[in-house]
Structure formats: structure tokens, C-alpha cells
């Protein structure tokens, strides 16, 4: 049994094998030619989930219970009969993210989509039901609180489960902000205090924020990190209050990708972009920045990465970390890996399509 | 009965897809029948509200259908119905 890396790209799912003690091995390709918009591995069952975005045929959901040897197509959720706040019919636009519903609820899955609809399955993905508590949240009907930025409509790109309590879940919506439920999805509260929406007349709105990526260190479920459109933010109290931890004088501020240390809640990594109006590597140098002190200081850990004329950015789901193994892929199809205690990046590929997502599957020890 | 032909692109998902003769008086009815032979194929062609997907075209005897929302265009016994992907993106 070897470690594996799954890479979801604009032209298929690529599977890498990394035997222990040697280098990565040649890839296997699944769904060649199709855009992988969602990629998820359910750690409870080992099931792989892939959401495909067909330009012609719509959104499709597939799963594999045998490590990609065979695939089954599952039904996708529907918004039939639902409306957007502008009165237009709501349609499923993209499958974005999935999260299991806890080890005590083996059949439960959460599914986040564009146009800002969260779905819940209680039968391992056979069927999905719209989570009305979020869909009908009063803030959605308020002008200027839920809106599209990178997309025409808001989308849910991050779902975070509290490992202590499977009824306690966070979602991040771009654009609306972070929402929390403590009752399994029936009721939701915005958790955006301390965030900044610099693109709005009132940057301190309760709803209207643009989190790009939301993560929780697994061993510290009271802690949340987010890479936001308007900086990097940390919360030590479950989102009740956010604190900006961008590097005020340096590079880490704008970007999409984020990784956290499951054991050390003060440690995180970002891969900054120049700024929202120039989505290229900051300074045209592809750099990973690390903080060990909750963002008080940031240092570049970019040995091995191109430092000149690099236009790459790293999308929100394209940076993965498990223990010392770190992998990220870029919008220009470059894939990098570091597996040493002292971070050093090795190139896995320069010839991939745009990388949307990266997942590490570590072999049992 | 009308004969329905498909773009070869759909064979990626339905390898056994063939020209199919089915009963029906409207395009919508034809799709319902085809979906029985090839379960799930309707969802490749129409949105969840039943309207034709943006990048799918259906022709009835070489004429593009008029009603993309409800697919009520009439089909007669000798018609040939073509289900194609729209050319887009160059």
C-alpha cells in the first residue's frame, strides 16, 4: 500500500502513487478531458467522490469504492422549484465541495454548491436534500449580502466539521461569509465578526464577506483559519471573533490556498497572489509562506520553486498537507511536492491542465 | 415512430447508445421514452427544470426546435430527431 495523491484538474482526475522511500510514480488518469470541480475522499469508508462539470451535459457526481478501479454515477441534487433572490429559477451550477457528517453518522454527507445551496445526504450520497435552514436564511434575501464574485452567484466552497460534535458545522460562502450550525443544519448563524469586506461601503457588515478558504486544525477544533479576499484571518474561539494575521509589511495577504497544522494551531501556510486585480504569483515569484506564531511573523519556505516570471496562482482546494508531506498544484498546471522536515519543493509535473484540487491519501502506517 | 439520433459525444457516457425508435408526439415525450432505454440520459440533455441545456441542440427534421423550455415541439411518425451538442468555444 502506497501513499497517493489525487489531483483534480480542468481535464481530468490524475492519480499518483508514491511508494514509501522512493519517488512519485507515473500517473493514472480518470475522466480524461472532463473538468473535475469537486474532489473528496471520505476517510470513513475510503470512498472517492468526483464532481464533473460538463460544459454540455451539466454537473455529474461519480464515486469509486475501489480506489479508482471502477466508478459509479450517482444522482445529483436538484434545486427544482427553488428561486434565487432575484426571482430567477435556481439551477445547480457547480458541485464545489463535500464533507462527511461525522463518524457517529456514517450515512451523512454534506455537499456545497453554486448557487450557494448546501445539501445533506443521510444515505451515503444516494439522495441529497436541500438544507433549508441556510437556503432560507434571512440574510440571503437582503440586497448585497449574498452575491457572486468569482462566479455569477454565491457558492459554498468550504465545509468544516467539528470532530467533537457532528451537529456542529461551518460553511464558507463566497460571497456571504462564514456560517455556523450547532444543530445539524436546521439553524445557521453568521460568524464574520472581525472580518473586513474592503470592497463594500461598510467593510464591517455581518454578511457580505468573501472567505476564499476555511480550515480547522483537526486536533484544535476551537481554531479556524481563513484565507479571505481581504487578508488572512485567525479565530481562536470558533469564529466568534476573527483577527487579521496578514503580513502588514510583506507579501502574505491576498490569495486562495491555505494549509494548517493539525497539531499546532498557530502554524499555517499560504501561497499569496499579487492582488485581486492581478491574479498572478505575488511578485511573479511562486512562494509558500509559513507562520509558526499565528501570523505574527511569516517566512518564505520556497526552496525549489520558480522565483522569476512565475505567473501561477494556487486555487483554494489545490494545496494539501498531511504531516510533513505537502503538495500543491497551480492554475498553470505545475505540481509541486515537499516531503522533508525542512521544506524543499520538488516538481512532479509541468504539463498538467489547470489544477483545481489536490488530496493526499496516506497509506496506513 | 420517430427515430432519434445522438451525437457521438454521448457514447462516452452511454457506450451502447444507438439510433432509437420511440413513441411520442413531442420532443419532451421522446426524451421520457429514451430515458427508459438509457436511464439518466435525460439529465444529460435537460436542466433540472426540464429546459434544454444551453449547449445542447435538438433538431426535428433539420429544424432547430422552437421551445427550449418545455420541449413541446411536435414530432410526427416519420420524423428524424437529432440530439447534438452545440458548437461553442471555437
Describe this structure in words.
The complex is a heterodimer of chains A (365) and B (90). With 365 residues, chain A is an all-beta fold. Chain A is 1% helix and 40% strand. Chain A is built from 1 helix and 29 strands. Chain A has one helix at residues 132-135; strands spanning 3-9, 12-18, 25-30, 35-41, 48-54, 58-64, 72-74, 94-100, 109-114, 118-121, 129-130, 155-161, 169-174, 177-181, 189-190, 211-215, 224-228, 231-235, 243-244, 255-260, 268-275, 278-281, 289-291, 299-300, 319-322, 325-329, 335-338, 346-349, 355-361. Chain A is globular. The mean pLDDT of chain A is 95. Chain B has 90 residues and is an alpha+beta fold. Chain B has 2 helices and 5 strands. In chain B, strands 2-1-5-3-4 form a 5-stranded mixed β-sheet, covered by helices on one side. Chain A binds chain B through residues 54-58, 73, 76, 78-80, 89, 91-92, and chain B through 9-10, 13, 40, 43-45, 47-49, 53, 55-56, 85-86, 88-89.
Descriptive terms for the model:
heterodimer; A: 365 residues; mainly beta; 5-stranded antiparallel β-sheet; 4-stranded antiparallel β-sheet; 29 strands; globular; B: 90 residues; alpha+beta; 5-stranded mixed β-sheet; 2 helices; 18% helix
Provide a brief overview of the structure:
The complex is a heterodimer of chains A (365) and B (90). Chain A is mostly beta strands. Chain A has one helix and 29 strands.
